[in-house]
Design brief:
Blueprint (H helix, E strand, L loop, with lengths): L1 H26 L17 H8 L4 H24 L7 H18 L6 H12 L6 H29 L17 H10 L1 H4 L3 H20 L8 H24 L5 H26 L6 H11 L1 H16 L6 H4 L7 H20 L7 H20 L14
Helix pairs in contact: 1-3, 1-11, 1-12, 1-13, 1-15, 2-10, 3-5, 3-9, 3-11, 4-5, 5-9, 6-9, 6-11, 10-11, 12-15, 13-15
Length: 388
């Protein structure tokens, strides 16, 4: 059991650092999110390769881990004889509120809102029959493929005219309040990714739960992990590299079809490595695990830190160092990662959970604590850690 928990913490830490590997290209672009659709051959060979390393893969891994977390919550509720989904819906509501604040105040491409909506749907499916789950996975997967196909065909038909960004100084010179106002005004545009995130999330949430049940984190799951590694890293990753250089019109295929398959390979390979380790964890493994244990705090912090580092209301490095692009970008990623690795490690010396996780625990317990107090008995339930 301990090794399985360690593997989950390591995976979660890798996923959090990997998501920054994708988002850092947005923060370090002087045009900000307005120039997101620069993926592909238009941005140069080196930058295309560097973006390929992270684009969508760690989003897929994080999504799988949310599904695994949901399965663990379901098991806990069944074991305790609690009604399901019951309190889990309050948990999902808190996640949605957290995501909404994160979107408005910090980052246009928050994923927590999409995860919250997906978890509300999957919570009603997690305990259903295999046939029902299979139908939902096939239906959601077919919907995702159809949406990606339509987008790709449309972009191919439009040609270069689809990727002409409108110059803006909002992120290089604008204030923080200007950016907040832009997120509110452009809500339909920036939240349009939910069209892809929700069907992809349904598939990966349910798949993550099924992989847990199949023993992917146990010794008996060695064969399964090998298959995942071959499919993800041996087959999907080379195809993903090809589509990365095929041009920006293939962006949706890169991010929502092939990258989640690569994420399965990462899940299999990293878990095998962790389970194969003997002795006490080393410095690197402990550091990554600490990030995993404070995943929510690190996810929000990394986007806040990158904003302060790159945007005009902060240090403004995106504009000042644009002449060094893409070479300075991996350095910015490493610097922010090192910062939250150190902070999370120091924090966990005194606290069991991260700062946002502690606030989450209080908010999760608050309604039931008040009811217990009104009934004249203490509330003993411990809020589950934020794992999806």
């Amino acid at each position: 059991m301990t090794r399985r928990i360690d593997a989950l913490d390591v995976l979660r830490g890798v996923a959090i650092m990997g998501t920054l590997g994708t988002n850092i290209w947005i923060f370090t672009n002087p045009g900000g999110p307005a120039e997101l659709m620069g993926f592909g051959g238009h941005i140069g060979v080196v930058e295309t390769f560097l973006r390929f390393l992270s684009n969508g893969k760690f989003l897929g891994l994080l999504t799988l881990l949310f599904g695994i977390g949901l399965e663990l919550q379901y098991r806990s509720a069944v074991r305790k004889g609690m009604t399901w989904p019951g309190r889990y819906l309050w948990r999902a509501t808190l996640l949605f509120l957290e995501g909404a604040l994160h979107y408005v105040l910090i980052f246009e491409f928050d994923v927590l809102m999409g995860y919250a909506i997906t978890s509300m749907i999957v919570a009603y499916l997690i305990g259903r029959s295999e046939r029902t789950v299979r139908i939902w996975m096939i239906s959601a997967g077919a919907t995702l493929v159809a949406l990606v196909s339509l987008m790709t065909l449309g972009l191919l038909a439009a040609g270069d005219t689809a990727f002409r960004s409108i110059p803006t100084t909002l992120y290089s010179q604008g204030s923080w309040t200007d950016q907040v106002a832009s997120r509110l005004q452009q809500l339909p545009l920036y939240r349009s990714e939910l069209i892809f995130i929700i069907p992809m999330g349904i598939v990966l949430f349910l798949l993550g739960a099924r992989l847990l049940r199949a023993g992917v984190f146990d010794e008996r799951g060695a064969g399964l992990r090998r298959k995942l590694t071959v499919i993800g890293l041996g087959i999907a990753a080379p195809l993903n590299l090809l589509t990365s250089y095929a041009g920006p019109a293939w962006f949706a295929v890169d991010r929502y079809i092939l990258a989640p398959l690569v994420a399965l390979g990462l899940l299999g390979a990293i878990t095998s490595i962790v389970l194969g380790m003997s002795g006490s964890p080393g410095v690197v493994r402990r550091a990554v695990s600490n990030v995993g244990r404070t995943a929510l705090s690190c996810y929000v912090f990394q986007n806040l830190a990158a904003s302060a580092l790159c945007y005009g209301w902060g240090l403004g490095l995106a504009s000042q160092l644009d002449w060094l692009r893409p070479w300075w970008v991996p350095g910015a990623w490493a610097g922010v990662c090192l910062l939250f690795v150190v902070l999370s490690s120091l924090w966990l010396r005194r606290f069991e959970r991260g700062p946002l996780e502690l606030a989450w625990q209080w908010a999760y317990q608050a309604p039931w604590a008040k009811r217990a107090e009104a009934a004249g008995r203490p509330s003993r339930e411990k809020a589950p850690s934020v794992r999806g």
